[in-house]
Amino acid sequence: MKNKPAHYASAKINKLSMDAESIECSLGNHLVYSISKDPITATDRDWFYSAAYAARERLTEHWIKTMRSYYEQDAKRVYYLSMEFLMGRTLMNAVLNTGCEENFKKAMAGLGLDAERIREQEFDAALGNGGLGRLAACFLDSMATLGIPGYGYGIRYEYGMFNQHIENGYQVEHPDNWLRYGNPWEFPRPEMLYQVKFNGRVVNYADEQGNPRFHWVDTDDVMAMAYDYPIPGYDTETVNNMRLWAAKASRDFDLRYFNEGNYIKAVEDKNESENLSKVLYPDDTTEMGRELRLKQQYFFVCASLQDILVRHHKHHDGFDTLPDKVAIQLNDTHPSIAIAELMRIMVDLHNVDWDHAWDITTRTFAYTNHTLMPEALETWPVELFEKILPRHLQIIYEINHRFLKEVMHRYPDDPGLWARLSIIDETHGRRIRMAHLAIVGSHKVNGVAELHTQLMKDTIFADFQRMWPHKIINMTNGITPRRWLNQANPGLSALISRHIGRGWLKNLSQLRRLVPLADDAEFRAEFAQVKRDNKLRLAKVIEQRLHIQVDPDSMFDVQIKRIHEYKRQLLNVLHVITLYNRLRAGGDCVPRTVIFAGKAAPGYLQAKRIIKLINDVADIINNDPAVADRLKVVFIPNYDVSNAELIVPAANLSEQISTAGTEASGTGNMKLSLNGALTIGTLDGANIEIRQEVGPENFFIFGLTTDEVSRLWAAGYNPWDYYHADAELRQALDMINHGYFSPDDRERFRPIFDALTQGGDPYLLLADYASYIACQQSVEALYRESDAWTRKSILNVAHMGKFSSDRTISDYASQIWGAQPISVPAD
Ligand code: 26V
After folding, report:
1. At what angle do helices 569-584 and 605-622 cross, to 10 degrees?
2. Coiled-coil ranges per the record (predicted)?
3. Residue of minimum CA distance from atom 9 in ligand 1
4. Residue 294 pLDDT > 90, yes or no?
5. Ligand 1: which residues within 6 Å by Cβ?
6. Is 507 in contact with 234 (CB distance < 8 Å)?
7. Core-most of 221, 542, 598, 724, by most CB within 10 Å?
8. Residues pairing with 327 in the sheet
9. In sequence order, what are the beta bridge partners of 163?
């Protein structure tokens, strides 16, 4: 490697110490010199910014060094392309990962500051919808912690996931203006600008040798500007980079309005092109075919690939070594246009022969599928594509043509198969199947849990499985234990570390050392006390925000996730109503607080109706003296990463009750179990693997299996049979239907009743109801034996090692990316 550039080697930098005194000094300096505030008038927000600057400057040197060492070691880099990164807050994460938590607290105390209040000033970075976006965030944490040269690439949305307000029981969406006060974690790179073309037309011509060449001309151009965010690993010198792109009008706009003199029109156009990165799409299923969303996808893919190639070409010529030095992971199909774009760059711009370019492309890309739901599989109408990306459409046609030639060669007598495998769906208008493009253009395709991967092979991608039996593999999801145990649950992590040391933070399997402690009465008491403290903390928040008093000794029964019919929040509601009816009839139950949280897509009316139902049921039950506080229902508004960090540690029971075969993996299930909640769940997604790890005796299973579900459909499912056969079920459904919970509008919930009865109950709630209710009975019975419950709860924590995203990332690194950890030399 070349010598260190003189300017860096000789630059004078002030080494930043981690001791409390220097941190205190940084805080004071930033308040005065960066924020320009007098401590007398400084607000909590001013102190938050001071703290953020003090923390981030303790990362930047390592960040620069990490980038330098990747360069010097010519490391293979991993690029995680994702439309979503659900990062949450950063301050605590930065402080914990750099190991200066204690000293930070001391420094704040030294200044008479309330660290907790200041921490809460930070807005969540909510650049994602749910599971898929949060997984990307956990993966960045794990890559940095493991020393894998991993880069996140995405979009710097000006508005993230909407804020959910509950008004009169209804969800109301409010814009998430998270950048309003500036973002102390981002480093704008105004010099890192790439041109992104849209629209226009393709000109064919022949080069000197008579080969056909293509020019994409008369385009409308937008510039992508980079913003960088440090991603510190835990207890390591490694600080990786996340680069998000913001849309900027191209300079042409300036020229054009000077020339044309139509200033207002020019500024309007400028605005329109900058709208590209304005807002995150808040739908995680359906609502496809939106032009702006396709433009967002190409926008960030195009900029990211240019950036990746600039970096590659700094020390490699051409493209031949690309697959040895670069792995690109496509987080769902959203960035899969990258396959056509890389082909365009090589074939059109660098004159690489098609076959050679295709070999390089397929060895570079890999694709992760996150859903089996047919309505969430992306397809784009050919006409829309042709308008926005005319050259890419031609390239996709060419990819498809060559692919189908191979298919026809191998399966000459099966034209049905050709149509099923084609990248172009000709059945309802002509549409591009992005999943097919992603599979054809990748060397590996993965599902996110064993069952999900098996179902991919058996159902939606069965034809591809037949064609390429080694392409589809499993990578069971994971979560970062740094955020989801150490940061979210300081009480439990301190207790664990006191008994087994701190090794679990980087090697989660060490939690197994807790197994013998499950039989230690003293440990159980301490463990139970931590859980109670966490419940008390949540109870206080519920009281403050919702004015509902909940009993911290009641069972905290938690279902927190996006509101979707397949996730079956309604099944939970049916159980709540059943308990309520039993109480009214003079029965008894273990005191329970049923906690819901989650957002509905703004256009998903049935999901919004479910939110209103939960709130109406809560109103009736919480105010019915007959219940005498033995049952409470709480809907916590605005479920986001920060609210998850508050709710997860306080849960006793985790509801993971999707219809078998519908939830690809789930990751909330892992967070809750890692924090000592017992799961009531179906044999779906990663639930199956969690149950396997923690032991069936420590897990409450109910409901139909995937096979039973298919058999029931094949035999003919009639929800009315269940309605008529079960009096408690009928009573609960009738109460919903007849307006018991909506006396002001008795028709309000009829569509819910209808969906579950004459609508055919597509998610089989009625079929699983009896099994669910019975299972909830055994949950109750165990909760009464509080010591036995605590024991199982400890055993859950002890067996969650597999679900660290560190394990997931090592598997990706070895089985898909061929990437190695790189050590960043210590100071
Ligand atoms: C799909 C779409 C469809 C078009 C409109 C915009 C949009 C935005 C996001 C998505 C992806 C939804 C898929 C998703 O989040 N899947 C979840 O992924 C988790 C991580 O693998 C997994 O644990 C959950 O089970 C799965 O539902």
Report:
1. 20
2. none
3. 284
4. yes
5. 129-132, 135, 281, 283-285, 287-288, 332, 370-371, 376, 378, 448, 477, 663-667, 685
6. no
7. 598
8. 78
9. 174
Atom index in ligand 1 nearest the CA of residue 663 equals 25
Distance 52 CA to ligand 1 centre (A): 31
Amino acid at 382: V
* Residue in the block written with tokens 């609502």: 287
CA distance 488 to 493: 9
Token duo for residue 508? 């989660």
The DSSP secondary-structure symbol of 34 reads I
- Nearest CA to 132 among 336, 396, 332, 269? 332
d(CA 543, CA 539): 6
Q: Which of 129, 568, 657 to mutate to test the pocket of ligand 1 (most atoms within 8 A of CB)?
A: 129
DSSP-H helix ranges across 429-556: 434-440, 450-458, 462-467, 481, 490-500, 521-546
**C-alpha span between 630 and 652 (Å, rounded):** 16
Tell me which of 291, 300, 332, 431 to substitute to probe ligand 1's pocket, judged by most ligand atoms within 8 Å of the beta carbon: 332
Amino acid at 633: V
Q: Which residues contact 121 (CB under 8 A, 6 or more apart)?
A: 44, 45, 47, 48
- Nearest alpha carbon, ligand 1 atom 8: 284
Measured in Å, residue 18 CA sits from the centre of ligand 1 at 40
Give how far Cα 179 sits from Cα of 53, 685, 751, 818, Å. Answer: 16, 35, 39, 37
Could you give the CA distance from residue 805 to residue 145 in angstroms, rounded to a whole number?
A: 10
CB of 267 closer than 8 Å to CB of 280? no
pLDDT of amino acid 135: 98
What's the rounded Cα separation, in Å, for the pair 120 and 51?
A: 12
List, in sequence order, every beta strand (DSSP E) within 34-119: 77-81, 85-88
Ligand 1 geometric centre to CA of 562 (Å): 10
pLDDT the model gives residue 342: 99
What confidence score (pLDDT) does residue 262 get?
A: 76
Check whether 4 has a pLDDT greater than 60: no
The third-level CATH classification (topology) of the domain covering 483-803 is: Rossmann fold (3.40.50)
Q: Which long-range contacts (CB under 8 A, 24 or more apart) does 734-743 make?
A: 735/577, 735/581, 736/577, 736/613, 740/620, 741/613, 741/616, 741/617, 741/619, 741/620, 742/616
What does the alpha-carbon distance between residue 129 and residue 136 come to, in Å, rounded to a whole number? Answer: 11
Nearest 5 degrees, angle CA 102-CA 25-CA 642?
45
Identify the residue whose C-alpha is closest to ligand 1 atom 10.
284
Q: Are 332 and 132 in contact (CB under 8 A)?
A: yes
203-228 pLDDT, tens digit each: 999 999 999 999 999 999 999 999 99
Q: Which CATH topology does 74-89+124-476 take?
A: Rossmann fold (3.40.50)
Output the six-digit token pair for 234. 């835990």
Domain spans, the chain: 74-89+124-476, 483-803
Name, in order, each residue with C-beta under 8 angstroms of 104's C-beta and a sequence gap of 6 or more.
20, 23, 51, 55, 95, 115
Q: How many CB atoms lie within 10 A of CB 127?
A: 25
Q: Cα dihedral angle (713, 719, 725, 728), rounded to 10 degrees?
A: 130
- Tally Cβ neighbours within 10 Å of residue 774: 10
Instruction: Give the percent of the chain with pLDDT over 90.
Output: 92
How many whole angstroms separate alpha carbon 583 and alpha carbon 377? 44
- Among 657, 591, 651, smallest CA distance to 621 is for 591
Give the phi and the psi of residue 771 in degrees, each rounded to 5: -65, -40
Ligand 1 centroid to Cα of residue 482, in Å, is 23
In angstroms, what is the span from residue 561 Cα to ligand 1's centroid? 12
In this structure, the residue with its CA closest to atom 15 of ligand 1 is 132
CB atoms within 10 A of CB 318: 12
Rounded CA-CA distance 747/769 in Å is: 24
Q: Please report, rounded to a whole number, the percentage of residues in the chain having pLDDT higher than 70.
A: 97
Cα–Cα dist 541/556, whole Å: 14
